[in-house]
Design a protein that fits this description.
The structure is a single chain. The chain is of the alpha+beta class. The chain is globular and about 70 Å long. The chain folds into two domains: 31 residues; 127 residues, Rieske Iron-sulfur Protein (3-layer Sandwich). The strands form three sheets. It has a six-stranded mixed beta sheet with strand order 1-2-4-5-6-10. A three-stranded antiparallel beta sheet has the order 3-12-11. The chain has a three-stranded antiparallel beta sheet with strand order 7-8-9, with no helix packed on it. The longest helix is centred in the first third of the chain and has 28 residues. Strand 1 and strand 2 form a beta hairpin.
Length: 170
């Protein structure tokens, strides 16, 4: 090889190293390493709350239910939020008042209904939070949450009380 060919190879190597370094710097500054205590995104894009209040942004709620997972004192639980046909936002725990102890007393969406995975009972979105007793999602009423124009906050203290009904959940 002559000197010109060696210089061209050196320039190519340096260029490749420089590009690799730039890529690594970009990756390093854009990748966030999560803190163990921080929220973790679920497949639905909603963050799992850990040992703190659940805060639901009202702008994110529609007629299709959203599920808000949380880990409170090592117990996994979930809140359902949905906009009813009258425009109000309804909230409930994603566990059945009757079937919770089975471990399968949670709800999945089928069409315009929530279906208990243990007993198969079906509930319309309009029944969330207002129907109490019997086989339906455990309501989270206005006295157990703070509602503002922008958000609904379910306090950690209330979530701690609910961990008993999630002991065998999913």
């Amino acid at each position: 090889m002559n000197k010109n060919q060696n210089k061209k190879l050196d320039i190519k190597k340096l260029s490749m190293i420089a590009i690799a370094a730039i890529v690594l710097v970009v990756i390093a500054f854009n990748v966030k390493i999560p803190n163990k205590e921080a929220s973790v995104k679920t497949s639905s894009g909603i963050s799992t709350t850990k040992d703190s209040d659940i805060v639901i942004q009202t702008k994110d709620i529609s007629s299709q239910p959203s599920f808000y997972p949380a880990e409170i004192n090592g117990v996994n639980l979930e809140v359902i939020a949905v906009k009813a046909s009258d425009g109000t936002i309804r909230t409930a725990f994603n566990t059945c008042q009757v079937c919770y102890n089975s471990g399968k007393g949670y709800y999945k969406v089928e069409g315009n209904e929530l279906v208990c995975q243990n007993c198969g009972n079906r509930f319309s979105m309009d029944d969330v939070e207002v129907t109490k007793g019997g086989c339906n999602p455990v309501p989270i009423t206005t006295d157990n949450k703070t509602i503002s124009n922008d958000s609904i906050t379910i306090p950690k203290d209330f979530l701690v009380q609910a961990t008993a009904i999630f002991a065998n959940w999913k």
